[in-house]
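Hey, quick one: can you model this chain's 3D structure?
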Amino acid sequence: MNASKKARFMFILSMVIFGTISLCVRSIALPSSEVALFRAVLASILITCYLISTKQKLVVSHDPKQLALLLFSGAAMGFNWILLFEAYKYTTVSIATLSYYFAPVIVTVVSPILFQEKMGKKQWLCFLMSTLGIVLITGIGDLGQGSSHLVGILLGLGAAVLYATVILINKFIKDVEGIHRTLLQFVSAMIVLFPYVLITNGITVHTLDTTGWIYLLIVGFIHTGITYCMYFTSLKELTGQQVALLSYIDPLVAVMLSVTVLQESITWLQALGGLLILSFTLYNELSSSK
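Sure thing. Here's the predicted structure for all 290 residues.
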């Protein structure tokens, strides 16, 4: 298997694994903030071991502004996880995931303000159609789903805003790249989340049963540590267009598992809304990658 095919396989595998995280998170009887904290802790341990085994030196910027950006992005990443995990509790996995994938649209709209990038007709079309998709996902006219469904969507959108924040901040970080940056962001997330967990719920991980521990280790080591290593290792060998296309395996797997494994319902209007978000965001990213 040549380098290109191996990279494509690793990227696809990482997207499939990312798409299954909701199944594990729902089986961990801990507050979302604590799951996010130990996700960062376990992943940091594994990535540190990976860097040591591959004899890579951790590159740390000496620029205070760059370090501050890393700290802030790590905090945003940690709270992004919290909101997404909470969204799973209030609505279906498919709706939470599709709401979360509004993040690229947010980046598209904010980029002209931060980076003086112009929004052309295609970008405006993608923004409007993706926004329509969110409106359809909320289930306008379907009051039977209750207020918790709307809360789940708002939590998913909140997670999308934080994820977009991480993406935008990363554009300002120049001295640290790839897996090194991610490790530093995980450590930053730990620094911020630890006092937050202590203040809100306290550390209750010791109350987990064997099943809960297994799922927590899977989320920390496999969904985060190993998968991020595969993701960044393969990223260097793929084109922007390949990344844009293959990234949509993640939400598609999440939606399929939601409907088939978890037996969660989704209306045809919500499915249409999800299709609008994914298709027009993909259309925008493919245009950008060219």
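One thing worth noting: The chain has a mean pLDDT of 86.
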